[in-house]
Write a structure and sequence with these properties.
This protein has 195 residues and is mainly beta. 11% of the residues lie in helices and 27% in strands. The radius of gyration is 17 Å and the shape is globular.
Length: 195
C-alpha cells in the first residue's frame, strides 16, 4: 500500500506543472464580465475565503456540497447560476465540480448536502448539470496525490434573464447562454490538498 501511495505521489508531483490556469475560469471570461462591474458577496459557514475546505466536503470524505450564502443581488436579476471549478487540475480546461442553475433571485443560501439530482424540488426551477466526473450535482475535491494545493472557485452569477440551455449543459453551453446577461459575479475560493 505504501509503495502504491509513493508511486501516486511521484506521478502527481510530476504533473504539477500541467493545469488549465485561473484565466480559464468562467468568472475570468471577458465575455461574462458584469456589465456594471458589480460584485456579489459569496461565503460559506464551513470554511473561510482562501481557507481549506473540510474533508467532509471532499471526495475523500462524505462528498457533501458545502453550505453557501450570498448577498448583494441586483434588483434586475432573473436567475442565479452557481459553478465550482478547479483550474489546478491537470486538464486543458478547469475541472467542473458543480453546476447549479435556475436559482431564483430570492434565494440567498444553499444548505449543506444538496441532493445529487437534476431537478431540485426544494428550490423552484433550479437544476443541476453534470460535473467533469460525469455525475449530476456536486463532486468534492480529490486532486491527485502529490499534485499540491488545488483552488476551488465557487462562482455565483446574477443574470438578467434565465439561461436557455438543453438538459445537462456543459461549461461552454453555459458561457454562451450567459454571455451579455451577467449583472454581477461573486467568488469564494477554498483549497484542498491530498497528501
Amino acid at each position: 500500500m505504501n509503495v502504491i501511495h509513493a508511486v501516486r505521489s511521484v506521478v502527481g508531483h510530476a504533473f504539477r506543472p500541467l493545469h488549465a490556469g485561473a484565466r480559464k475560469l468562467l468568472s475570468h471570461d471577458v465575455q461574462l464580465a458584469p456589465r456594471s462591474g458589480a460584485s456579489l458577496s459569496l461565503q460559506s459557514p464551513a470554511f473561510e475565503a482562501n481557507g481549506e475546505i473540510p474533508r467532509k466536503y471532499s471526495g475523500e470524505g462524505e462528498n457533501l456540497s458545502p453550505p453557501l450564502n450570498w448577498s448583494g443581488i441586483p434588483g434586475q436579476t432573473r436567475e442565479l447560476l452557481l459553478i465550482c471549478e478547479d483550474p489546478d487540475a491537470p486538464k486543458v480546461e478547469p475541472f467542473v465540480h458543480w453546476v447549479l442553475y435556475g436559482l431564483p433571485p430570492s434565494q440567498t443560501r444553499l444548505p449543506e448536502g444538496v441532493p445529487a439530482m437534476e431537478a431540485l424540488a426544494s428550490i423552484t426551477d433550479a437544476r443541476q448539470s453534470k460535473n467533469s466526473a460525469g455525475d449530476v450535482g456536486y463532486t468534492g475535491p480529490m486532486p491527485p496525490v502529490g499534485h499540491g494545493v488545488h483552488h476551488y472557485h465557487f462562482q455565483l452569477f446574477a443574470l438578467d434573464e434565465p439561461v436557455r440551455v438543453d438538459n445537462n449543459p456543459d461549461r461552454r453551453d453555459l458561457a454562451a447562454a450567459m454571455s451579455g446577461h451577467v449583472l454581477a459575479v461573486g467568488e469564494l475560493i477554498g483549497t484542498y490538498e491530498r497528501k
